[in-house]
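Format notes (please read before filing issues)

Several people have asked whether sequences and structure tokens are stored in separate files. They are not. Every record keeps both together, in the order shown below: the sequence lines, then the token lines. Line labels are part of the format and must not be stripped during preprocessing.
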Amino acid sequence: MTTNGFDEQALDAAYRKALAAEKAGRTEAAATAYRACLGIDPDDHVGARLRLAALGVGETPSSAGEAYVTTLFDQQAEAFEDILVGQLGYGVPGLIGETLARLGFEHFDRALDLGCGTGLVGTVLDGRVDEMLGIDLSENMIEIAFDSGAYDHLYIGEALGFLEDFDEPEPFDVILAADVLPYLGDLAPLFSLAATRLAPRGLFVASTEALADMAGDGAAKGANAETGFAVGSDHRFHHGESYVRAALERAGFELVAFEPITVRMQEGEPAPGHLFVARRTGG
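Then the structure lines:
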């Protein structure tokens, strides 16, 4: 079957073979099978590039890839909140709301929620924003966010493309990105585009997963001191604190807060990360 432009049965077979080899500890066989997945589907709906990087046998990609993220969250949409919030204790949206209130940022005229998912951030800030916009790659996620009633406008699309091409010139007072950066390696394009869409002194608020948590982890083989990010065994990007701080400064932000958080539970252990609030500098 080739409804997506590739042989889905062949991809499924190769992917299952790769997973079995990886689980058995046969890294070379797993890598061969993941590369076969890429040969069948260069757009990489199954995240083979991330898995190769996590195994330490492939280059670290600059992002998780649009096809993979869309597939992942379309599949997870219905059970997303139950699994992530109910079972894994994900609480970043609530931490964003609490942190902004503690810092004295109680109300915003216009906000953009990147990677809005099912609308958790919008729900937390409901009543504190006059006009809330959200965007997500997953149509299934957007449908659930719509039902939340927390958004004035919702869009299906990729965050960087939206920031670059959105045809409304009115700037945002705050741009939010909860659990978005773990699907991006290179943060420079996102930070730069976010700055161009913010009003002077506007805020950029986002969460990361910490690179330091990967110390001694075999899945950190893809870590690169020059890039400051790597793919973890969870197949998500982990970012070094100094890398994030430097990328924000280069994009024209000054930090208001940069705080350690627990993002969620991962295999029974707290997954450490950071929550930052950055202010656009200049006029």
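For reference, the curators noted about this record: The longest helix spans residues 8-23. The chain has eleven helices and nine strands.
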